[in-house]
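name: query_chain
kind: protein
chains: 1
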Amino acid sequence: MTSLVRKDLADGVTTVTLDSPHNRNALSVRLLADLHDALTWALAEPTARVIVLTATGTVFCSGADLKEQKEAGAPVTASLPEIFTLLWESPKPVVCRLNGTARAGGLGLVASCDFAIAPLTASFAFTEVRLGVVPAMISVPVLRRLDPRAAAEYFLTGEVFDASRAAEIGLLSRAVPEEELDTTVARYAEMLVKGGPEALAITKRLVREVPQLPFAEGLRRMAELSAERFTSEEGREGIAAFWDKRPPTWASP
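structure:
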């Protein structure tokens, strides 16, 4: 059976592509299983330094596969928390390249990635309340990204908003003209592969954890971390490469 998710590896970047355009890349049981397998592979592959999540067609992801759910008589997105966790806790940077519109559950994927870049033509909506359901599972990653007032506005109204607004409220990192989408994503990937793998993984955690620490404790723990990283094998290699005016081993061609 053909997979609904493709994966490609080149120059340290694994591109994971939702490939079910016939139903607007809806989150079906099969697509979620294939996505889980692709992400697990990318996380385990040592030559994959950065993950790019994208999709085929004109819609990035339309949310839960409601047709499949109707036929099954039960929710089909039970595995979504595991997918969100793989993306959120990935030690490798994850860039979401939105090829187009996203709705509902698809926005949980967007928010779970470290970066999200979309064309200005894309639109977004949390449509759950209009169906009499709630944006429950996706709220965990989404509310960590969105401005609180914007979250209340769009969660409660289900109103459609554009890519510029999505960037303004924190859902997207960038909203760019469609013709600049691929070059912008490539630029992010190229910058990210220059970082030390351990340093990137630790910095991902730092960005999320440090704001929650009491000020004095934060300074104490970060002083310890700084000393540890300067004397680590990766830190020593990076500093030596700087003085030798050469790329560090992890960034060598």
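note: The two ends are 36 Å apart (CA to CA).
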